[in-house]
């Protein structure tokens, strides 16, 4: 039965309007808005700072310039608060200024002690005399700020020009308003206002060698969940537990070793230092009978750049972390083999899990042992989803959840609008069907 003429016209108009809206949305989503080169509006010139990357010993200095003032020269006074084992220098060459035909100078004018922190307070004075406007606005370039250069916090030198021993230090930098000003081409001065929000604070951390605390080792029976499928369940395992102190993040690598009475390395486990919570305690499975010394081997980088590799770490008391001895004696029967196999079944499918602990103890990598289960679950979901689609059924709940998820996560707007357009078309079609049905009923009456 054909639809009457009015309904057909309505459908055609609705489709055309919806397609036009979708096209406009797609076109708008592809249009880029130029926001990168906006000029910051300032009523006064000011100084602000930015740390270079993750290095708190290098701080870039910027002059944010007044909109209408003519600025050709300036003098800037900075107060730098650091420990007395450090000094500060200024590097003009990292900045934006033309240093060829102009006068520029950086000078430490005063030094004093901070009564509260005991730090050394330095006054770093920057002078620059130029022959052209620094904040000139042109058709192609809008200049509202320039980088003056970089402050470097460096170790102080002793009388023999050697670096003095350094320590971790808080660093604070702020502008001295009474000294800082800009000058125009006509030599008219204007004060640089201090913005309290634009001060700098950071901390220089001296990297130190990591240490070990609470080192223990105990012997347990090997159970079914500790070994690969098909291997014999026999022997003993050694579980090593300890705490690692690495407050300055100097550690670069970590190993746990068992060495025999002759000092020969027998068993080694490499630890993922990015995931120590799941790596410790460490288990060595199917260890032969005998006496073993436990060693915690670390590689790390000190603050002076010196790299230490494969060194036995010390405890926080200063004793080497290898003084622990453990004796392995095999038991005739493993403890609760069924329970061990059930608690940690994923180890049976993992060929690299020879040294993992049983389900009765904290696994050396809980995250990795749970991943196979998650992946199998996701694959099962994928299979069931595919099977329902292959039967020609439409999962409205899945479509709705995907739309909501896309909107929440800020997905591509064009994709969202296309999906919304399809939904609207479906709603329109349903409405037309209901309207047609009502018309048929009325015509029968």
Question: Which features does this protein show?
Answer:
five-stranded antiparallel beta sheet, 445 residues, 20 strands
What's the overall geometry? flat
Sheet having the most strands: 7 strands, antiparallel
Report the portion of residues in β strands.
Answer: 25-35%
Please provide the count of β strands.
20
> What are the low-pLDDT stretches, counting only 5+ consecutive residues below 50?
29-36, 334-394
**Portion of residues in helices?**
10-25%
Kindly, what is the distance between the CA atoms of the first and last residues, rounded to a whole number of angstroms? 18 Å
As a whole number of angstroms, the C-alpha radius of gyration is: 36 Å
**For the residues shown, what is the average pLDDT?**
74
* SSE string, helices as H and strands as E: HEEEEEEEEEEEEEEEHEEEEEHHHH
| Oligomeric grouping of the chains | single chain
Helical/strand content category: alpha+beta
How many helical elements?
Answer: 6
Account of the 3D structure:
The chain has 445 residues and is of the alpha+beta class. 24% of the residues lie in helices and 34% in strands. The chain is built from six helices and 20 strands. Helix 1 packs antiparallel against helix 6. 20% of the residues are buried.
Topology:
Blueprint: H1 5-29, E1 46-52, E2 55-64, E3 73-82, E4 86-91, E5 103-113, E6 120-129, E7 145-155, E8 169-175, E9 181-183, E10 189-191, E11 200-204, E12 211-221, E13 236-245, E14 251-259, E15 265-271, H2 276-279, E16 282-287, E17 290-301, E18 307-312, E19 314-315, E20 325-328, H3 337-343, H4 366-390, H5 396-408, H6 413-444
Parallel strand pairs: 12-19
Antiparallel strand pairs: 1-2, 2-7, 3-6, 3-8, 3-9, 4-7, 5-6, 8-11, 9-10, 12-13, 13-16, 14-15, 14-17, 17-18, 17-20
